[in-house]
Specification:
The structure holds two protein chains of two kinds. Helix content of chain A is 74%, strand content 3%. Chain A is mainly alpha-helical. Chain A has a two-stranded antiparallel ribbon. By secondary structure, chain B is mainly α. Helices cover 77% and strands 1% of the residues of chain B. In chain B, β1 (62-65) and β2 (72-75) form a beta hairpin. Classes of the chains: A mainly alpha, B mainly alpha. The A-B interface holds A 227, 230, 294-295, 297-298, 370, 373, 388-391, 395-396, 398-399, 402-407, 411, 414-415, 417-418, 421-422, 425-426, 429, 436-437, 439, 443-444, 478-483 and B 25, 28-29, 66-71, 114-115, 118, 122, 144, 147-148, 151, 155, 159, 162, 165, 177, 181-182, 184-186, 188-189, 192-193, 195-197, 199, 215, 540, 543-544, 546-547, 550, 553-554.
């Protein structure tokens, strides 16, 4: 019985909070903040408990029919709990950060309400047990992030929001068509019932391929696969915590997670491989990785550079999914977490520079390391991770991807990976050089664009501590990658299930 | 009990310099104003000391860290213990030297110069960090630790290169960083490829796997070139002569003495040297390596002899010496059965070059700030390491005899001849470096000689002593001394070099000036840079055009969408019109039907 309670309670913890926040008055800062933090701590506890339970072999699932033949399924399996763990961990930090970031700004009630809804949708996506449930939360995520993207209400933000909706709604439509088509062919497929499609027989294969392509188109919008990535760099007009969430957990990761589910738990690796679908994924991912890095190199604005870097980095996950072999799977799944930790850190830092010093452009960062050493340290960790240097988590991802591509018999992918590393170095090292080695306002030359003293330390503690915490996680998860319950170890556990079964 | 002793010693040895590095930001954080703060204090100098304990003859020098990165194994064997000894000694003495060398910056900090304070702080942070990376890469047996140590050392050394912050330092730093990143890329590709096909995370299994893998020789080539950036393989060496002259002298000493040996260690750890049957392809790779090595040995000697900055000359000499080492390492692929003996010779050569070159670099600073001692003694002491490097005496003679005997046993007399000719070049370079130092010292007037007990002279004399006594304390490759009859065969290159140097100096002095002006340090860097700038502009334009064309496609799609929406509007308007005129239309069509029916028969 208790197995059913946990997924529902986890989901409810943020749904209820969203409802309560909308009911509270705008000025109720204390009530809202304690609700937010309390709920995120409770959720983290629940997810942690489920992780421990899964480790002991327990099962957490709840299922009830909606109409005949379609049921609503929540199930915490090893893969889902991985994503749930990431989102609840990063939600805690992003909430803390957002509280500090939005200090004294209007419409905070609306913001935190939709923020909670957004996290609820992400959790729903991670715990969904079949395509129908997945689709519901996937669409809910689109709708709940729109108000966050346009939060500022400026013409630029509204335009970005319009672009965002166009892309994601059409993607959602494609996904919907795919889900319905699969339902017609094979009925209600629960995640993990890989034999359903595999048993269909060869005459269905052309249809299965077209459905797969359709669904990848739908999921590829959120994953920001080239050429469906156009919304992502525009959406960076959103406030920093939203960008952080969008890039690290919520939207792009929901897409990537969807691709993981589709390949591993609906089609199954064997079938996807037989149908030749994996090669297509590898090709798209390779193109996206290089293209995103090249575009990032040309950006002069910090957040824009980070946004294109996300385009590139998220496709590492797709690349890992597309390679046949357990090591590549480990790479894909662990990078799901690793990229989240690193990117959230980088966006937090970008937000800190913007809030404390008014810095938006890269050439304004000269010497900022001496003014904001802790933030810049966190940025350095994130950037080195993106390049893939040890001991950060980025190295672990890159290692497994590289070894996985050898295992899959595609050594040419190493060239893609190394080129991407070099390009990452080419656009991150100059930033690090500016931070630490150039002289700037901190040395008495010129002024910061818009300096505010937000706290006794280099900036407000609300902004600083979450940044440091995520940076520490991305360092420790790499340094101690072989510890039990590290992202890598958990990814290996999931991968072994995918390949043994 | 002793099972726990080695692990704790090795962990302390790794963590101690790291902790000392971390002390700097913590101290800076605790109080932001501290003009009288001494960043390079006594504690700071102790960074490499705990690693000395690793040199003891441990019975089981290995530590397994199952939770670390991809699973860590740290251990030591004789070649690595020798390199560790070199590392600890040179880093320690150069650190001591740095205290004296940077004393003027300390004075400036106390006088209120914030930039000097920041420079010192950065130096104090990155020096031990770089050392920590260097120590880790020596003890690492697993790939991840090795790569961690290597890249930590590489990137931390950037801060040492650009220390002065001048324009030249920026150029040197850029060259260093660009080449280092390229090297890291090749190393990463080689390691991933090799480790992936051998399915391992350990270096020894990777070595074995290279021979068995189908494309093993390409993996090996990537690793050779990747580590070759550090070791100054010809073509990839351009950062050395640009970075060495601009770095602070103690940093140049460790760069040239120890850090480029990390490239050598990379080869020793990853290439299947001495493997019983490496296959034809590897023999071919060995030939390529030895040709490249000899090309570096000669090219760098000629080009370096035309430099005017003593540190640039010494940097080219390092390229030249590493070229000779490359040729010797390549023999491990060509005549694997001789490898055990050759390895000892290579390690001896590497350690000899490391310490001697370190002494020479430190000597440049000494000739700039001469200590209180008779001029003839000073110059005699400055001359000694040069003679040793030329192979006339001391460790140079021993190491030359070491590889010569092995090569004679392996029946590769031609290589001995080539290496002897390269030693002529070395002598030329030493003569040139000393001449440049001599001239610089004569032009500058020194009214305030440094006390002989100061940090700089003590450290310099220490390295001199260590280099001279090397054959007696080195854990591996303790050499036999050549019999007297062989001395002629060993000395002629140096004698020829001296004759050559003197005659060139006397005869072509005027022309030499013209030549020198045309040959800037960094040789290939400058044309490469110009080529890059031409290409990069075009690529950047191409990428932005690509972005623009993508945007154009999006715009066209949007136009299509607008057109569709407009089309919907037309339909809606049509519907409205239909609604408004429905009655009339109905009447008209009824009338039309009636007429048709009437007319029809």
């Amino acid at each position: 019985m208790s197995g059913a309670v946990f997924p529902i309670a986890t989901l409810a913890s943020s749904l209820l909070v969203a409802a309560l926040i909308f009911l509270l008055p705008e000025r109720a800062w204390w009530a809202r903040t304690s609700l937010n933090l309390g709920a995120s701590l409770i959720k983290l506890g629940l997810v942690g408990w489920m992780v421990w339970g899964l480790h002991r072999g327990l099962d957490y699932a709840v299922e009830f029919p909606v109409v005949a033949g379609v049921s609503f399924v929540l199930r915490a399996d090893a893969l889902g709990i991985m994503f749930a763990g990431l989102s609840s961990l990063l939600w805690l930090f992003t909430t803390l950060y957002a509280i500090g970031y939005l200090e004294d700004s209007p419409n905070r009630k609306r913001f935190f309400g939709f923020f909670s809804l957004c996290v609820a949708s992400t959790l729903g996506i991670s715990l969904a047990g079949n395509l129908f449930t997945f689709l519901i939360f996937y669409e809910m995520l689109t709708l709940s992030t729109y108000p966050l993207v346009v939060h500022r209400g400026t013409p630029k933000a509204l335009a970005a929001g319009a672009v965002y909706l166009r892309y994601t709604l059409s993607g959602g439509l494609a996904l919907l068509l795919g889900v319905v088509a699969l339902h017609v062919i094979a009925g209600d497929i629960h995640f993990g019932e890989r034999e359903v499609l595999a048993d269909l027989g060869a005459e269905w294969h052309p249809l299965l391929v077209s459905i797969f392509v359709l669904m990848i188109l739908g999921l590829g919008v959120k994953t920001a696969l080239v050429p469906l990535h156009g919304w992502l760099p525009k959406a960076m007009v959103a406030p920093a915590p939203v960008s952080a969430l969008l890039h690290a957990v919520a939207v792009v990761k929901a897409g990537a997670f969807g691709i993981v589910r589709l390949v591993y738990d609906v089609y199954g690796i064997e079938l996807s491989y037989q149908l030749g679908l994996m090669h297509g994924l590898v090709a798209i991912a390779a193109v996206t990785i290089i293209y995103g890095s090249l575009r990032a190199l040309a950006q002069q604005e910090l957040k824009a550079r980070l946004a294109f870097s996300t385009v590139s980095q998220v496709s590492y996950i797709v690349l890992g999914v597309g390679l046949f072999g357990p090591l590549a799977t480990v790479a894909a799944l662990s990078h799901l977490l690793h990229q989240g930790l690193m990117k959230v850190t980088l966006f937090f830092c970008a937000g800190n520079y913007a809030e404390e010093l008014g810095i938006h452009r890269i050439d304004e960062l000269d010497g900022a390391g001496w003014r904001m050493p802790l933030t810049s340290f966190a940025f350095t960790v994130g950037a080195l991770g993106m390049i893939g240097l040890p001991p950060t988590v980025g190295f672990i991802s890159k290692w497994y991807l590289g070894v996985g591509s050898i295992e899959a018999g595609m050594p040419w992918l190493l060239a893609v990976l190394v080129t991407s590393s070099l390009l990452n170095a080419a656009y991150f090292l100059p930033i690090l050089h500016r931070l630490w080695f150039r002289v700037g306002p901190a040395h008495g030359y010129g002024d910061w664009p818009d300096e505010r003293r937000l706290g006794r330390m280099e900036t407000s503690g609300w902004l600083l501590w979450p940044t440091l915490a995520t940076a520490a996680f991305s360092l420790l998860a790499g340094l101690l990658a072989s510890m039990p319950f590290s992202p890598l170890e958990w990814a290996a556990r999931v991968a072994s299930q995918e390949y043994v079964l | 009990m002793s099972n726990l002793l080695f692990p704790s010693v090795i962990i302390v040895a790794m963590l101690w310099p790291f902790g000392l590095a971390m002390r700097v930001p913590v101290r800076g954080w605790l109080s932001s104003s501290g003009r009288s703060r001494v960043w390079l204090d006594g504690w700071w100098c102790t960074a490499p000391l705990p690693a000395l304990a690793l040199l003891l003859p441990w019975s089981e020098p290995s530590l397994t860290l199952s939770w670390w990165l991809l699973g860590g194994v740290w251990s030591l064997d004789d070649p690595r213990r020798s390199l560790l000894a070199l590392t600890v000694l040179l880093w320690g003495l150069a650190g001591l030297y740095a205290r004296g060398y940077l004393a003027s910056e300390q004075h400036r900090q106390e006088a209120g110069d914030d930039n000097a304070a920041r420079r010192l702080q950065r130096f104090a942070l990155f020096w031990p960090l770089c050392l920590a990376g260097n120590l880790l890469l020596i003890v690492a047996e697993d790939i991840a630790s090795f790569y961690l140590g290597f890249s930590t050392m590489t990137f931390a050394a950037y801060a040492l290169v650009v220390h002065a912050g001048t324009r030249d330092a920026q150029t040197g730093g850029l060259a260093y960083l660009v080449m280092a990143v390229l090297g890291e890329g090749m190393i990463l590709a080689g390691l991933l490829w090799a480790a992936g096909s051998a399915e391992t995370t350990m270096l020894d299994e990777l070595r074995e796997g290279l021979v068995e893998a189908e494309q093993g020789v390409w993996m090996a080539a990537l690793l050779w070139l990747g580590f070759g950036v550090k070791a100054g393989v010809v073509g990839l060496h351009v950062w050395l002569p640009l970075a060495h002259p601009v770095a602070p002298t103690p940093a140049s000493a460790v760069l040239s003495g120890v850090m480029i040996k990390a490239g050598l260690l990379g080869w020793l750890m990853t290439l299947p040297l001495g493997h019983a049957d490496p296959g034809e392809a590897f023999v071919m790779l060995g030939r390529v390596m030895s040709v490249a090595g000899l090309a570096a040995a000669f090219g760098a000697a000629v080009y370096g002899a035309c430099q005017s900055h003593p540190k640039a000359v010494l940097a080219y000499s390092s390229v030249s010496q590493m070229g000779m080492l490359t040729a010797l390492v390549a023999m491990g692929l060509i005549v694997p059965e001789q490898w055990p003996a050759l390895l000892a010779a290579v390690v001896l050569f590497a350690c000899h070059h490391g310490l001697t070159k370190g002494t020479l670099f430190l000597g440049v600073g000494i000739s700039e700030h001469p200590p209180r001692m008779p001029s003839w003694l000073l110059w005699a002491l400055l001359l000694l390491p040069g003679l040793s490097l030329s192979g006339v005496l001391g460790s140079g003679l021993a190491s030359k005899w070491g590889y010569k005997t092995v090569l004679y046993d392996a029946d590769h007399k031609d290589l001995v001849l080539w290496l002897s000719l390269a030693a002529v070049g070395t002598t030329l370079l030493m003569a040139r470096a000393l001449w440049c130092q001599w001239r610089a010292a004569r032009q500058a007037s020194h009214d305030d000689p440094v006390a002989l007990t100061g940090a700089m002279p003590v450290a310099w004399l220490g390295t001199l002593l260590a280099a001279a006594s090397l054959p007696w304390w080195l854990p591996m490759g303790r050499p036999d001394w050549p019999p007297l009859g062989e001395l002629v065969g060993l000395w002629w290159p140096a004698a020829l070099g001296v004759v050559l140097a003197v005659s060139i100096g006397l005869m072509a002095r005027q022309h030499l000036h013209e030549v020198i002006k045309k040959l800037p340090p960094g040789d290939l860097w400058w044309p490469l840079m110009r080529g890059y700038q031409a290409v990069a502009g075009r690529v950047a334009r191409g990428v932005s055009r690509l972005g623009a064309s993508v945007a154009a496609v999006v715009r066209r799609l949007q136009a299509l969408e607008r057109w569709l929406v407009d089309g919907l509007g037309v339909l809606a308007r049509g519907e409205q019109w239909l609604g408004r005129h429905g009655a009339v239309l109905m009447m008209a069509s009824a009338l039309l039907l009636a007429i048709i029916m009437l007319v029809a028969p």
